[in-house]
Amino acid sequence: MKYDFDQVTDRRNTHSLKWDISDGELPMWVADMDFPTAPEIRSAIKERAEHGVFGYSVVPKAWYDAYKAWWKNRHHFDIEQDWLIFCTGVVPAISSIVRKLTSPAEKVLIQTPVYNIFFNSILNNGRQVLESELKYKDGEYEIDFEDLEKKLSDPQTALMILCNPHNPIGKIWDRETLAQIGDLCRKHHVVVLSDEIHCDLTAPGTEYLPFASVSETCRENSITCIAPTKAFNLAGLQTAAVVAADPVLRHKVWRGLNTDEVAEPNAFAAEAAIAAFTKGAAWLDELRDYVFRNKSAAMDFIQKNIPKLRVIPSQATYLMWIDCSQLIGTVDEAVSFIRDKTGLIVSSGRQYGRCGEPFIRMNVACPRITLEDGLSRLQEGIRKYEETQYAE
């Protein structure tokens, strides 16, 4: 391999959300990686930094070209330049779009278990969360289309937030599924907001399908949020894009992002994205291989050493969704106990919706030695937690 993902980088004392924790603790929760970003991106950032002047920035044509070429070559989707709008992040974009495309007290549909910040973007803006729970059976998830249509048909449902690929379950939705979602949303006059931030973190040899590429219906009745931040570990640089083909929707999005002042880049945001999409492909391919070998190793370890837990097979993201329903007690209690006794920090599934309650989410985007440490702590924590439950 050209790139070294086994190297451990000390992230303590760097004002890291993930690593600003107590000594001895090991964070495997929040969705950023413990790998330095691609050297090609670091070089571009250094070159910009060496200029020394960091005034107001504009979005250059190279930024548009980089997005267009990446989605055409990597994801077989032609994006026109006019469809692209810069934004400081996917979450700010989602919150802004919720405000601009819905009215207070209207409903925004999400498919749970799903990324917990969706709840914040809806509730904090005075809208109602409408959950359409995914059907879970024998370690697999699928959409409950009967429930989905029932809830889309509610006159108060104005927007659906789609997660594609889906976080936390790591599922890549196929063309038939996406087309059916698109047809139902058009039928019931519900706009689709597709969060596709994890789209480049698919298993080697596996591709995701952009929602807007599926059909004219999907393209014209949707807004898509994309970014290099998950795939290239650039979340702290605040760089993303919103894609909207329909001119009326695009104008509303543009107005919303500019009203909320989240449509201007910092001095490094555009340069980092350009470098990622024009020079980062080889690094990303090696990263994907490493991450999915980590996933495979973690699944094997859990099957062998913690048989009460069940890892849900996934095709995307560096997150593992783990069924803990066979444990005695509650997952919230177990997660707290594991942190207290072993220092391992993982996410309780309850925050991703009611149906996520028996699960934990674990981030395996880290050097192998860190992963092995985390898995050992998980095994120890589960063992000790069960011992306390049996003793009661």
Account of the protein in words:
This protein is of the alpha/beta class. The protein folds into 2 domains: 26-36 and 281-391, Aspartate Aminotransferase, domain 1 (Alpha-Beta Complex), CATH 3.90.1150; 41-279, Type I PLP-dependent aspartate aminotransferase-like (Major domain) (Aspartate Aminotransferase, domain 2), CATH 3.40.640. It is 41% helix and 15% strand. It is built from 13 helices and 15 strands. The chain has helices at 39-51, 61-75, 90-101, 117-123, 145-152, 175-187, 216-220, 229-232, 247-259, 269-279, 281-305, 331-342, 368-391, and strands spanning 26-27, 84-87, 107-110, 128-131, 135-137, 140-142, 157-163, 191-195, 222-226, 240-243, 310-311, 319-323, 344-345, 347-348, 359-363. The strands form 4 sheets. It has a 7-stranded mixed β-sheet, sandwiched between helices. Strands 11-12-15-14 form a 4-stranded antiparallel β-sheet. A two-stranded parallel sheet has the order 1-13. A hairpin with a 2-residue loop joins β5 and β6. The N and C termini lie far apart (51 Å). The mean pLDDT is 97.
Radius of gyration: 21 Å
Number of strands: 15
CATH superfamily of the largest domain: Type I PLP-dependent aspartate aminotransferase-like (Major domain)
CATH class assignment of the largest domain: Alpha Beta
Strand order of the largest sheet: 2-10-9-8-7-3-4
Compressed to H and E, one letter per element, the order equals EHHEHEHEEEHEHEHEHEHHHEEHEEEH
Task: Give the domain tally.
Answer: 2
Give the overall pLDDT as a whole number.
97
Specify the structural class. alpha/beta
User: Termini separation (Å)?
Assistant: 51 Å
Strand content: 5-15%
Please give the count of helices.
Answer: 13
Q: Biggest sheet, in brief?
A: 7 strands, mixed
CATH topology of the largest domain: Aspartate Aminotransferase, domain 2
What level of helicity do the residues show?
40-55%
Shape: globular
The CATH architecture of the largest domain comes to 3-Layer(aba) Sandwich
